[in-house]
Amino acid sequence: MRRQGMDYTGPTCLIISLFCTCCASPPNFVLLFADDLGFGDLGCYGHPSSLTPNLDRLAARGLRFTDFYSTSPVCSPSRASLLTGRYQTRSGVYPGVLYPGSIGGLPLNETTIAEVLKPLGYATAAMGKWHLGLGANGTFLPTKQGFDKYLGIPYSHDMGPCHNLTCFPPDVKCFGFCDVGTVTVPLMYNEDIKQQPVHFLDLEKSYSDFATNFIMTSVKENQPFFLYYPSHHTHYPQYAGTRTAGRSLRGPFGDALLELDNTIGDLMATLEQTGVINNTLIFFTSDNGPELMRMSRGGNAGSLKCGKGTTYEGGMREPAIAYWKGTIKPGVTHELASTLDILPTIASLAGAKLPPVMLDGFDMTNILVHQGKSKRETMMFYPTDPNEIYGLFALRLGKYKAHFYTRGCALSGTTPDPDCPAFAVLKAHDPPLIFDLEADPSEHYPLPLADRPDIQAVLEQIKKAKTEFEASMVFGESQVSKGTDPKLEPCCNPQCSPKPSCCYC
Hints:
Elements: H1 10-22, E1 28-34, H2 53-61, E2 63-69, H3 75-84, H4 88-91, H5 113-117, E3 123-129, E4 149-153, E5 166-168, E6 172-173, E7 187-189, E8 192-195, H6 203-220, E9 225-230, H7 251-273, E10 280-286, H8 313-316, E11 317-323, E12 331-333, E13 337-338, H9 342-350, H10 365-370, E14 378-381, E15 394-397, E16 400-406, E17 427-436, H11 453-472
Parallel strand pairs: 1-9, 1-10, 2-12, 2-13, 3-4, 3-9
Antiparallel strand pairs: 2-11, 4-7, 5-6, 7-8, 10-11, 14-15, 15-16, 16-17
Helix pairs in contact: 6-7
């Protein structure tokens, strides 16, 4: 039977043929999304002391990307793009991030990956850090965006007092700072508060148990599934439970990373035990680069320039791994790809209809199955506070990247590179700075335009791509600019007083 919206040519046809002959069921999808993880943080990406055996195993047996990008150097916008296949400027999840009392969130008329899959009968679940809005009466929670079930924290775990946020037993407080004057961080199940404050040291076990139950139930009911796990790790301040605390060589950051890796190991074990590992695509990446202002507790961008909050490579180029036992061959790809491409890829593999809106992503099936060429020719770089006046800060075309504006950020402070901290103020470049990212991924050496007709020709192509893209961009109403209302902060005893201290259950 033909699936609605399916392309029956090329690599997608090959995949569907495999499904029909091998397992006669649609593929499952597990999407893993780390938090503030840098390009150089994983062992399989060259870090000498990270302990990430499960991710390293996925990379060794799957496909590892070297040129994979998020769409924003901060949390909420990059998550919106991941789930919708659209730049955050279209959905309005900008500038910056959403907060516990934010009035706005990911608009309900945006279509998420979960909503793409639901018409095909997929079971859908999310666990972890949502950070796309809570809103009045849980308006913007995952259960309102296509997910059947949700267990997690609706925003960053530092957006509240650092209650019971510990690193090493017994009860040694984490090095770090959290917000004060707000409610303690809640753990939510679907739209209800299950625990407030959340017990961080038990959190990963709760996630593993939730995922195991979800996968086993889906398999038992012969239902294809989509599991989205946006982890809190390795966002600052780090925490780790008893299984990993003190076990890494990198201190609290390494312990938190190891705990994330352990949870991924638990997921893989469940997929093996339920017999669906051969019919499941697992994709891992991160939302943005490392928070370098935290020094050794903030992550590592490897050889890339700067980190979180900037449009340099360290802010938006991410580790990415695709694993599908028996379908994706082990290897490394240097093809250009992005979180934007995950929705159209999943839709293609599942035979789902694409949303009837302007998408910015491309189907990656050819890259995954054949390690072939990418359909993506360009990548656009918006700052944390995009607007129509400035437009793009940078654009990558093939191996070349042009910076029209550069600016540092406090989130990338403490580095010796003077271009990274906040005192590196906004600077326009006309002509733009152009880098060959294959020869110079650290963006140290701008290419000269004088006496270089080849680079001048590249510049003209980049300008044309920029003009065409910006002409297609319609900025959505800013959700973050709607402001905050303390009454919207989640409280398990909504009628109690005095707030926020009485929000305890």
